[in-house]
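Quick one:
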Amino acid sequence: MPVPEDHAYTLAGKRWLIRFTRLRGSAIGWTFLKDERNPNVNERILIDEGTYKKANRAALELLIHEAYHALNPSYDETVVSQHARDLARLLWGLGWRRKE
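Output:
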């Protein structure tokens, strides 16, 4: 399965670049937020292409997890992880799958 091209989506009124790429280290996703400490950051979400290619519930949870960071930057990692896990379990249980 080829890696999807970059996409731009509006989340919480902001334009976000979503890129599927090979990530170094142990992280499988990153959300880059513009804030006081990083005013020049281009807001973007990076998703590990290897994880995304699996097209399983973990890939769905990863995408939801990173989108949650974009939508709710004040939520801590524990809350984001729990919400993403719950929503992925719900959608997967209802039969949502990515088209190949």
